[in-house]
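Anyone else keep sequences and structure tokens together like this?

Example one:
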Amino acid sequence: TLFFSCQKKEAIMSVPKIEKQYITDPLVYEVINAVLKMPEISEYKPDYMINCSYILDFAINEDKKAFYTLTEKYFGENDTLNIYNQIEKSKVSYYSEGKINNVKMIDYDLTKIAKSEQLDSLNQSIKKYRPYITISFPIFNKQRNVAHVSFSDDGSVKYFFIKKTDGKWEIITIYSETIVCY
């Protein structure tokens, strides 16, 4: 009698630990500090900023078509791979303390979140820091003179494009603005 054994071996794959990466690009900080001085934004005068640059995906998931149509319009060409890579980088990117003028950073480390309860707890813990804002990682065109940014405070969210002209960043369009009612 001949017996064959087909035992299935399960491969155990370890999930790489996501490491928090601090943003070192001086242009990112130039953009964030310029946004905070813009009249459309500076009226909020925040005390705190949530240290999480990964806000953009929420905007893109809401209206991908508008986002990509506008990036094509304002970036000149739609380099979707470059845009995608910047969005992916933003998911693990955090602002360095002291690089953003006149606001205190609130640690908001998404790399340690494994369960929705932990995110709920993190969201609850930031309520003691008011007023606070969030600003997304700027998504740049290839020439890095136009960027997409989202800005949120306790009561509104703005998605816009800015352009550097004559050494100064200015809003070229706010394409979405939502007022949040609690």
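And example two:
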Amino acid sequence: MPRDNAAALQQLAQQHGIELCFNDEGVCAILIDGDAVVRLEGEPRGTGLRLSAAVGRLPDPQHPHALRVLLQANFQGQGTGQAALGLDHVSDVVVLGWSLKV
């Protein structure tokens, strides 16, 4: 079991044969298949990480039906499990986020 976020990131890098590290803001962005970005955020010496990734866009993010769909997916984890969906306030992209302890 890794002792902290930096050790967990190092273990992940070794398992997949890639280089990973946190930047000065405590973020490690992983590009998958050239277009999907998974962000790992946390203090390198801490034990809590936040994973997030854009999963799509809503046709009209201000439409009540679109917001209702997001709320239903988040309701008691029925559509998201331990993760949660939300809208990025800058880009209106739907983001799936998950907090975990290492």
